[in-house]
Design a protein that fits this description.
Layout: E1 17-19, E2 22-24, E3 37-39, E4 46-48
Antiparallel strand pairs: 1-2, 3-4
Length: about 55
């Protein structure tokens, strides 16, 4: 039987995504044109920075 392990793919979206009760917080902050995103895990409210290419 092949080894099975869940993977989160590198999907750069503008907002956090919830798929099958797993939050994908990758909004591309490591690349120009992305945003840094933080989320309150209780309320699911999130905040985002300006686009990273405008910050540095």
């Amino acid at each position: 039987m092949p080894y099975r392990k869940p993977h989160i793919l590198n999907m750069h979206h503008e907002e956090p995504m919830n798929i099958f009760n797993v939050w994908n917080m990758n909004t591309g902050a490591g690349h120009s044109g992305g945003r840094l995103t933080i989320m309150d895990i209780d309320s699911k409210e999130y905040w985002q920075s300006d686009y990273t290419n405008t910050l540095y």
